[in-house]
């Protein structure tokens, strides 16, 4: 059998393989460099980067639940200046692509990050639209149709790199929101982000998280994520999708590819096993060998 071709092209960027890291679970890779060879990753998606440092929410802000975890970190980060000075040079030591997840509380903050990254040595931007829009009463950009269109359009107007929009699953119609993002100029879509959840301590009779609600991630959300990827692929067949949500094995990743994703991002699994991305990549290779596929393009859902 010929050598396996795991490369994938998304919005003009060629990735050596379809296994990426999910934003917020890998930092800039420093914590994982002792466990995996970062060179083997298709891409590192950075933690959310804002124009100025964000402190994040007060603890407790992480809670384990059956099938995953809740987090209300609040996109804590050191800000764009430090990211450009320290994290980009660190990641450029490795032969992997860099996807920068950008965040903001206003459309202007998002645009400022994109403008400052215009000449930066990064390969793609990922727009985190689950941030609260403080100019519209705190509603998340990703759950309001007009806010979604406007922020994607504005950021795309100032971005040099291809733009992937990370969709929120906390909506009634994911396909409609995906179409809005695509119409506004998105080059790709990342889905799904976390599902809003809550955990209560029955002994103290209080919410476990200081922020009360948090984002649910991990194995428990995978069926929802696979369904949404398939819905969006069916509704918008022309736009690349980076699938994520509960991926912890090669077969999990293949399920997303069969649903219509071009690549996958691994998140919560990194906390349980820092070598998870390596095992997932090998699992995809094993699957392709077992079923006689020579390239990712051959992995299609049999409908």
Care to describe what's here?
It is a single chain. By secondary structure, the protein is an alpha/beta fold. It has one domain: TIM Barrel. The chain contains 8 helices and 16 strands. It has an 8-stranded parallel beta sheet. Strands 5-6-14-11 form a 4-stranded antiparallel beta sheet, with no helix packed on it. A two-stranded antiparallel ribbon has the order 1-2. A hairpin with a 2-residue loop joins strand 1 and strand 2.
In brief:
This protein is of the alpha/beta class and 303 residues long. It is 30% helix and 20% strand. The strands form 4 sheets. It has an 8-stranded parallel beta sheet. Strands 5-6-14-11 form a 4-stranded antiparallel beta sheet, with no helix packed on it. A two-stranded antiparallel ribbon has the order 1-2.
Which features does this protein show?
303 residues, alpha/beta, TIM Barrel, 8-stranded parallel β-sheet, 4-stranded antiparallel β-sheet, 8 helices, 16 strands, 30% helix
């Amino acid at each position: 059998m010929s050598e396996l071709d795991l490369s994938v092209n998304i919005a003009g960027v060629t990735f050596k393989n379809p296994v990426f890291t999910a934003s917020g679970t890998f930092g800039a890779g420093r914590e994982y460099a002792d466990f995996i060879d970062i060179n083997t990753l298709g891409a590192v998606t950075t933690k959310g980067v804002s124009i100025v440092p964000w402190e994040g929410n007060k603890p407790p802000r992480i809670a384990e639940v059956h099938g995953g975890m809740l987090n209300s970190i609040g996109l804590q980060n050191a800000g764009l200046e430090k990211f450009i000075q320290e994290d980009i040079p660190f990641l450029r030591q490795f032969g992997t692509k860099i996807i920068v997840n950008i965040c903001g509380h206003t459309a202007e903050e998002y645009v400022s990050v994109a403008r400052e990254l215009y000449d930066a040595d990064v390969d793609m931007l990922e727009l985190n639209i689950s941030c609260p829009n403080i100019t519209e009463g705190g509603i998340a950009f990703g759950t309001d149709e007009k806010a979604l269109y406007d922020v994607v359009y504005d950021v795309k107007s100032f971005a040099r790199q291809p733009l992937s929009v990370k969709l929120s699953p906390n909506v009634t119609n994911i396909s409609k929101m995906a179409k809005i993002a695509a119409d506004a100029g998105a080059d790709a879509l990342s889905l799904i982000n976390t599902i809003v959840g809550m955990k209560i301590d029955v002994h103290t009779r209080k919410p476990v998280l200081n922020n009360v609600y948090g984002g649910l991630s991990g194995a428990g959300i995978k069926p929802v994520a696979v369904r949404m990827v398939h819905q969006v692929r069916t509704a918008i067949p022309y736009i690349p999708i980076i699938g994520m949500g509960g991926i912890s094995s090669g077969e999990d990743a293949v399920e997303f590819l069969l649903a219509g994703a071009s690549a996958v991002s691994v998140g919560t699994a990194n906390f349980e096993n820092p070598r998870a991305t390596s095992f997932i990549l090998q699992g995809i290779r094993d699957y392709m060998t077992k079923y006689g596929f020579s390239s990712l393009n051959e992995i299609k859902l049999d409908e």
